[in-house]
Amino acid sequence: MPNLKAKELRRASTDAEHKLWSFLRDRGLDDYKFRRQHPIGPYVADFACVEKRLIVEADGGQHADSVADEGRTAWLKAQGWTVIRFWNDEILRNSVGVYDEIVRALKR
Question: Model-level pTM?
Fold first, then answer.
């Protein structure tokens, strides 16, 4: 089922997800390969670099103080993934800063 949900999520991407994908796609970020709406276990990550086990999430207001997100992040971390989150507004207004933070996470 996660694969069907991933397809639906790709079709319904937000403006922030489009912007983030514009610099993650086609190895556009320091030649690292990212996948969009990538299923991992019971979840679908917004963006994932499998090689570095890094997940990048673009969050809207519905994610504020989300207990479900905390559980999801804990599960992903237990599987060996690093999860970084950005608010949609931050992606749209400070894409250079977001880009730099993702590069730092990749280099760890």
Answer: 0.84
